[in-house]
Prior knowledge:
Layout: E1 6-8, E2 11-17, H1 19-36, E3 43-48, H2 52-60, E4 67-77, E5 80-89, E6 99-107, H3 111-123, E7 127-135, E8 148-152, E9 158-159, E10 175-178
Parallel strand pairs: 3-4, 3-6, 6-7, 7-8
Antiparallel strand pairs: 1-2, 2-10, 4-5, 9-10
Amino acid sequence: MDQKIIKIHDKEFAPFIPFAKIDQAVSRIAGQMNTELHDKNPLFVAVLNGSFMFASDLFHKLEFPCEITFVKLASYSGTQSTKTVRQLIGIDEDIVGRNIVIIEDIIDSGLTIERVLAQMQMIGAADIKIATLLYKPNAFKGSYAIDYIGLEIGNDFIVGYGLDYDKQGRNFKDIYKIVE
């Protein structure tokens, strides 16, 4: 991991989680899924934009029949959650009776996934599991279970590996945290 501070817009970010550790977490989640979902033919629903790297790396490690689709939601402005979730691109697959796995890059308050979960339940998914690369237990306000967690982190604002600060920083292979 490059040990230097990076600057995005007006903020500085320090190295936090190297790609090797991210890859280990993704491999562990894939291993669990290969055991638990091998006979379910699940539909993975990746939440854009942030989860695209995690979804791609995870998908390469799955060893069973499955499909993937994407939804696009927005809940952040700058470094703060707006507490409102806007749907920009919705589900266009038939999910009635399907086994669904929602893929998220990070779960902090849990509002985004709560909205997706409610929508999937309303449409009639048979079973819904949730997978997140990163989880902030101290920020979580949801009342649902998270089935697959890559890494637990504190409440730091982070960028890299798909996560952004005002649309920048997603391209970094490693994850960086804000320098306050």
